[in-house]
């Protein structure tokens, strides 16, 4: 068996947990990075910030992350290295590998087809995963992440800074490309078969039924001791003002509506929290 997990998002919807869960099994090796940021840097002008410049790479010389970032740098300059690198992980004795990069949610159909063809030409059994979360909760978590590691902001200031970040950014292109799930789903379904595709939801991801779906799709046994593992969680210290929450939910109403049509379970997973 030679399986490749292509994670397309969404950011703040459980992808780090999934990477940790799958990576805990014998014979699964994702390499030195969770997010390789190859195809977004190459193909999406909105995400050029992920390009590793020669200058940035040079600044990391001698630091622990140098070799991992050099791999990203080299793949961005020669995409042929992408499939061959992961092929090498399989040849080392593993059966599953992959790249879970949430900003791939914005990739266009042509780029997704290119990735598919490169991997399938190498003989990979491709498994595409796209996790979603209540759109309001996702953007609120993303806003909190903006300031989480900023030492210039005190704990008292962070509460207001988080609210300001949310209000200023929820309509931004960077937030929309990660939250307009219906647009990403449409592109996924133009390129990949239903058998290759896993759609999941943060709100019920950490449950035994979800692990059973993961078992069936990825081919790993249920490991329910992982349900209590929290990875990359941003602490929520304050509630968003009701008026702002209502504005955000209204702005993303097309996402709620499209998902309710395609995934009826979101009517109960998400709707009770709507303002």
TrEMBL record:
GO molecular-function term, one example from the UniProt record: sulfotransferase activity
Source organism, top-level taxon: Bacteria
Domain Sulfotransferase: 125-230
One protein family per Pfam: Sulfotransfer_1
Name of the molecule in the record: Sulfotransferase domain-containing protein
């Amino acid at each position: 068996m030679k399986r490749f997990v292509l994670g397309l998002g969404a950011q703040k919807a459980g992808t780090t947990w999934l990477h940790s869960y799958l990576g805990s099994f014998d014979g699964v090796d994702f390499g030195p990075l969770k997010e390789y940021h190859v195809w977004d840097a190459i193909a999406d002008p909105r995400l050029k910030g992920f390009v590793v410049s020669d200058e940035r790479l040079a600044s990391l010389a001698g630091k622990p992350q140098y070799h991992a970032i050099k791999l990203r740098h080299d793949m961005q300059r020669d995409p042929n290295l992408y499939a061959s690198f992961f092929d090498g992980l399989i040849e080392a004795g593993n059966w599953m590998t992959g790249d879970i990069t949430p900003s791939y949610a914005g990739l266009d159909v042509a780029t997704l087809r290119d990735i598919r063809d490169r991997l399938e030409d190498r003989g990979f059994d491709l498994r595409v995963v796209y996790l979603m979360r209540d759109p309001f909760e996702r953007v609120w978590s993303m806003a909190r992440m903006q300031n989480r590691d900023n030492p210039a902001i005190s704990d008292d200031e962070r509460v207001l800074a988080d609210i300001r970040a949310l209000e200023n950014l929820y309509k931004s292109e960077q937030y929309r490309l990660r939250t307009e799930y219906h647009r990403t789903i449409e592109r996924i379904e133009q390129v990949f078969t239903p058998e290759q595709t896993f759609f999941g939801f943060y709100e019920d991801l950490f449950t035994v039924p979800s692990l059973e779906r993961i078992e069936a799709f990825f081919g790993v046994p249920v490991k329910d001791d992982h349900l209590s593992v929290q990875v990359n969680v941003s602490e929520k210290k304050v509630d968003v003002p009701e008026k702002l929450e209502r504005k955000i939910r209204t702005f993303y109403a097309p996402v709620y509506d499209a998902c309710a049509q395609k995934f009826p379970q979101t009517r109960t997973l998400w709707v009770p929290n709507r303002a």
